[in-house]
Amino acid sequence: MKEEVFENKAIAYLSGRMEDKEKQEFEVFLKDNGAFQIQFEQLQNSWAQLDSLEVPEPSERMDTSFYSMLYEEQDKAKKKVGFASQIRDFMVSLWRPQFAYGLALLAIGLAIGFFLRAPIDNPVQQSPEVVDSETETVREQLVLTLLEQPSANKRLQGINEANKIQKVDETVIRALLQTLNSDPNVNVRLAAIESLTNYLDNPIVREGLVQSIVSQESPIVQVTLANLMVALQEKKSIEPFKKLIRSKSLDSSVKKKLESSIQQII
Amino acid sequence: MQALTDNALMLKVKTGDLDKMGLLYERHKKRLFGFFYNMNQNASLSEDLVQNVFVRMLKYKHTFTGEGSFAAWMFRTARNVNYDHFRKNKNSRFQEDVSSLQYRGNEMELEEEIDKKESVVQLNLALQRLPEDKREVLLLSKFRELKFSEIGEILGCSEGAAKVKAHRALKELRSVFLQLENKEL
């Protein structure tokens, strides 16, 4: 056996890393070769002597240091993951607006398409109620504004606008009654009466007309109101008319008209 | 349930499951500590070096392929850690040896130990006088439950060459030990 082969087999035998069959063969070889046997025994003693080497137990400090290091590494790894996720979020945030813009453009496109198509198949119309309501609100504001104007023409225009309103607000009615009672212009007051006749179903209008009888000084307005009360057969107007008749300033022809009207109402 | 092999654990560490390094530490801390202690006879330093091995394994976890054994990879790292330490601290080697004696002296009176285990001390001395590569191969083959194929992997040589190196290191240890004994006489 060559020296190198012996070295190889001897250390394998000593370290217990030899197969049983090989082991037996090596033992037979040693018995037959005294020089190798001696050399092997010397090595075997030194090998066994190594078992006497003592190794102390590592201290707890080693464990503490290791686990501190490990936790630190784990924290670092988490931070790295955090950083990576930040980058990912950043990339996503870059992408998200594009997606949002895309969706927005799509929505705008659909909306445009819908509205362009709408008149053909399904005309979009606001309900008449809505339109009327909006128009009447604007018109009421216009009436109120015009009735406050110093120009009689403007106030007449206001009354004309009031006539166009289907369902007048109480504010407009009171504004018209105010015009009837205090407007300096006879034509405007007459126009107010005419306008108010559109809302005779409203008790406020009828009451207002009755009450305005005594405050009227213009003969033509007095006669107009008398005719209206006759037409309405408004019995509440008799007393204001009688009061007016007793007034000394009342025109005689108007007085006769009022007396006649009272008779017609009764 | 079959416990995960070292290789499987290290591959998990590689993929970011750092907790598994704790398991590997528990499995191998004594082997590594013993290796370093036998190499340098300094318990405190050996603990630091064990720590350095695991730090380095974490740092270079991406290089673990799982093809070789984990033990071989770990001891190769340990070997590099040991070399790097003594290359950086050439001048402190003597002091470390002294501190090692102090460390052991704390556990047992040195004189008493010499009386009781004179041959062990001589064996330690003989071991320390061996060239580092021979001390290393001897300790790896004697104590670390490694196959010679793994030792060859650690040392960067063939299995046969590792056996021959181990044999010759043991032979030289015996020679140095006998020289020390003859001096005593």
Automatic annotation (TrEMBL), chain A:
TM segment ranges: 98-116
InterPro entries per record: ARM-like, ARM-type_fold
Domain of life of the source: Bacteria
Keyword set, alphabetical order: Membrane, Transmembrane, Transmembrane helix
Keyword rRNA-binding included in the entry's annotation: no
Protein name: HEAT repeat domain-containing protein
Originating organism: Poritiphilus flavus
